[in-house]
């Protein structure tokens, strides 16, 4: 494994790191060391600090991977000198001074928005009855129901956290665009990945493609890892 960078996986809002299990299994089978960040999802700066703890615990360079809100986290935390590459999976890619909220405000208005319920005590959740269709359309119904019932409350402050120095401006990035996504519209994904200059791949999958199609996600991560390991 000495010639392979470590892989650090960062989850998004409403879920936790266990959703990465199938991607983790594929990558470790291929000889990668993989670590999974568990975001508190209370604030962007707090989540970035937790990600940096995991990044700095790795031996050597890191490919930093973020799903959904995790894209904002890796954008903020990815300036760590140990990070060699960024991989965005159906993710937010903020620029300096931007937050998830500012990106949400720029979403196309001709498509339904995410079924986020009004905040309660400073936290957000998704409408359970709409979770399967919106968040996990290509995930089996029983697993989608479990994901809906095990939601992690997402702190309102995390959505408002502004990126200070976007890592994608100085680090190479890859982006998996999910063309059946009902949470982050594909046109928004294309706009964000294009602005970041990411190497992009499109797949017909839901927002939960890391659960439903782990091989597609692992393959893109390995592409980034191979580029990061290549002699400069």
TrEMBL record:
GO terms for molecular function: hydrolase activity. The keyword Oxidoreductase does not apply. It holds the Pfam family Abhydrolase_6. It comes from the Bacteria. Residues 7-219 form the AB hydrolase-1 domain. InterPro entries: AB_hydrolase_1, AB_hydrolase_fold, Sec-Metab_Biosynth_Hydrolase. Keywords: Hydrolase. This is Alpha/beta fold hydrolase.
